[in-house]
Amino acid sequence: MNEAPDPFWKTAGDARQYDEFTKTTFAAIYPVIAGQVLERTGISRGTCLDVGSGPAPLAIALALQSDLRVTALDSSSKMQSLAARNIHDRGLEGRVIPMLGDVHAIPADGETFDLVVSRGSYHFWVDLPGALREIHRVLKSGGMAYIGGGYGSLEARKSVLAGRKKRGIVDDPDNPSRPRFRKFRPGEIESSIEAVGIEDYRIISDDSGFWMVIRKSA
User: Fold this and answer.
1) N or C: which end of the chain has fewer CB within 10 A?
2) Which of the four pLDDT bands, split at 50, 70 and 90, describes residue 1?
């Protein structure tokens, strides 16, 4: 039986190349971002969902710095295979669990996760309000979501840009000319959050990146 078409990565080589980037050019950003997630949400134990996890670099970094049990959700079977290998290589089987699925229909019951995170995937969501509604649904009462994109610090961003330039990649990673990369109008993200009925949230926009920090009412 032929494998179903991958919704994002056309070839296994494309997926492997991205996996390599996370271990080289981008490697330093994930421990930094994981630390910021834990500090800013105050959640370091329980259950966590990483949406659009790719080969699971952030999920792994979170597990290494906390007592969280992390589910790494991605819609790409190619990425899930790479994630499973990376999790095994770090000895985190049972702590980080790959899950195949889409943010618009998360395959989990409501009130499942204490923390939901996502770095770099929201620009590719077809329906931002719908995705946020699903994230809010699977959060436990009092749980938090930390969603956005960035490099953790200005120094890390400069390092990533230098690494990309060394590889001959010259586009701006904050404004790439990539298919399916969605750019948001001013106020659109806030409107999308509020359209779902979420009232307890804040936006962080600083050297760490752009992040939506959401709390589900207890």
Assistant:
1) N
2) very low
The single-letter code of the amino acid at 131 is: A
Question: Angle at Cα 130 formed by Cα 19 and Cα 218, nearest 5°?
Answer: 100
The mean of the pLDDT values for the chain is 90
For 193, the token pair is: 């959050």
How far the first Cα of the chain sits from its last, in Å, is: 46
Domain at 12-215, CATH from 3.30.70.260, 3.40.50.150, 1.10.10.10, 3.40.50.880: 3.40.50.150
What pLDDT, in 10s, does the model give residues 99-136?
999 999 999 999 999 999 999 999 999 999 999 999 99
| Closest C-alpha among 84, 93, 40 to residue 63 | 93
CA–CA separation, 157 vs 115, rounded Å? Answer: 25
Q: What single letter denotes the amino acid at residue 52?
A: G
* pTM for this entry: 0.90
